[in-house]
């Protein structure tokens, strides 16, 4: 069997295996979920307003790491990776690249299918949070930065510091890396299991490497994409945990039914 087809089947099976019976959550195609995503967007974009000193320190460290990588690491690391580029590495990079795009949606689809099949609240929430985080991190934040900053890709043979705002170039940040880390973070937040974290973040790291291996991104593009994906993934999961409707059975004396609660 084709390795790519086999890997996609494996992703789907892993998603189903992590599902376990529970209560149902919001439907993916519903006004409730649409409103939740809108709330997610507002919350993520306004999150800096609520940061404390520790949050600003972490943001500063992350930004400094990206800038330092851009100045001191991008060009020498690119030369080193390209010097060791070969057919085996090309095949490995080609294998992992879809995990930063289409394969993440296959995995989220498996959680959606498993959640519906087994009435699994956590699986459904994983799928829905993963989709929301993808839309915000990859589509909105990374997409806007790509458009606005206009950084040249390594294969364009420009220097690492070549930026032309709104000029059509779109190297910074790496969209594939953003996507893979956003979904990896959502999975790891919902399933606090060591092997889920290792597989999720390990695969995301390989996606980042694959983008440098095929000369599509600088190291700082990958680092920035990973940080954006992690930050958005954690924020979306934490926010949605506090703002979802919860259905629970009620049996109190003569009263039998279902209670819907929501935390603000």
Topology:
Blueprint: H1 3-17, H2 31-46, H3 53-72, H4 74-83, H5 87-96, H6 102-118, H7 121-149, H8 175-190, H9 194-213, H10 219-243, E1 245-252, E2 255-262
Antiparallel strand pairs: 1-2
Helix pairs in contact: 1-6, 2-7, 2-10, 3-10, 5-9, 6-7, 7-8, 7-10, 8-9, 8-10, 9-10
Structural account:
Mean pLDDT is 88; it is low at 257-264. The chain is globular. The protein is mainly alpha-helical and 264 residues long. Strand 1 (245-252) and strand 2 (255-262) form a beta hairpin. Helix 5 (87-96) packs across helix 9 (194-213) and helix 6 (102-118) runs antiparallel to helix 7 (121-149). It has helices spanning 3-17, 31-46, 53-72, 74-83, 87-96, 102-118, 121-149, 175-190, 194-213, 219-243; strands at residues 245-252, 255-262. It has a two-stranded antiparallel ribbon. It contains ten helices and two strands. The protein starts with a helix and ends with a strand.
Q: What series of H and E elements makes up the topology?
A: HHHHHHHHHHEE
N-C termini distance: 49 Å
Number of helices: 10
The low-confidence parts are 257-264
Strand arrangement, major sheet: 1-2
Rg estimate, integer Å: 20 Å
Q: Bin the strand percentage.
A: 5-15%
Helix content: 55-70%
C-alpha geometry: globular
Biggest pleated-sheet summary: 2 strands, antiparallel
What is the arithmetic mean of pLDDT? Answer: 88
Structural class, judged by helices and strands?
A: mainly alpha
Total beta strands = 2
